[in-house]
Amino acid sequence: MRSIYVVGIVVLSGLSLLFAVGIIYGEATDQWFLGGGFVGALLIAYSFIVLLLRQVGLIGPRKTER
Known about the structure:
Blueprint: H1 2-28, H2 32-56
Helix pairs in contact: 1-2
Keywords: Membrane, Transmembrane, Transmembrane helix
């Protein structure tokens, strides 16, 4: 089960890299709507990465949440 989460983290990390390249492309070609869309997708991908990292147990709850 843990390996499924790790595969998900790796896939989302790869997508995040593609989104970052898309942001650079959008800025370089002066297509602000494309770059903005990639920023939103990047933030969503990061939130799912954090969620999966918590599920795996690599990052845990804060001291106040225990």
